[in-house]
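Everyone, carefully examine this protein record:
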Amino acid sequence: MNKTILITGLVFGLLAVVLGAFGAHGLKRIIGPDEINTFETGIKYQMYHALFLILLSMLPNISNGARNTVFYLVFAGVVLFSGSIYFLATNTLTAFDFKKIGFITPIGGTLLIAAWGYLIFSVLTKK
């Protein structure tokens, strides 16, 4: 599982760089500055959590159960939080109104917070 966590962190990091370049060079011409800032927020949180997963894969003394739980929380959180932000930031470019599914952004954020909280709890209660 550590290899899966590491690879997921690396892929999230790669995608954050690719999406960042796309935002800086491709999207800047077709969406406004507020939307670019929103898009960049998704990239930042994706990259933070990519690094978090890479670190998680290497942390000693974390039980496999705790590591897996944190991984699944981060994975779902990044997909829901950053993914929904990308769609909301580029909402004007599609026929679908992504504001209708904007409620998933805070769900993703809550999952990211839960991952950090669960890891803290696991470390504090480890004997």
User: Anything to note?
Assistant: The chain has a mean pLDDT of 92. Helices lie at 2-25, 33-58, 64-89, 104-125. The chain has four helices and no strands.
